[in-house]
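[agent] plan:
  1. take the single chain provided in the ticket
  2. run structure prediction with default settings
  3. attach C-alpha cells to the ticket
  4. add a short note for the reviewer (M.T.)
[agent] executing step 1
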Amino acid sequence: QVHLEESGGGSVQAGGSLTLSCVASGFSGTACMGWFRQAPGKEREAVVTFDTDGTTRYADSVKGRFIISEDNVKNSLTLQMNRLKPEDTSMYYCGAEAVYCLAALRSPPDMPYWGEGTLVTVSS
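[agent] step 2 finished; step 3 output follows
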C-alpha cells in the first residue's frame, strides 16, 4: 500500500524560506513524485514534478525560488522554498504515481496517491 508522509510547512514572513519533505513507501518500482498546492477556491496545481528519468518541471511562478531534491535511497522528495511570497500561501500536497509523470501533468493534476497536505502561510 502506497503511503506518502509529509513534513515541514508552517508560517513565515515574505522573503523567508521553508522546507517541505515527503517520504514515500509502498512503491515496488520507480515513480513520478511531485509537490502540488491548492489555495482556497482554486484548483490544485503542480508546483514541481520529478519524473522517473530525472526530468524536473517547475511551475513558472516558482522557478528560481524553489528547489527540489530527491533521495532515491530514502524514497524522499524535499522542496526548498526560498523568497516566499504571500501568493505562495496554500495547502501543499505530495503526490505520486507509478513510473512516469502523466497524471501529474494534467490540469488539474490527478495523481493516484496523495499525502494529507501541509499548510504554508506567507505573511506580507
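[agent] step 4 note for reviewer: The mean pLDDT is 94.
[agent] ticket updated
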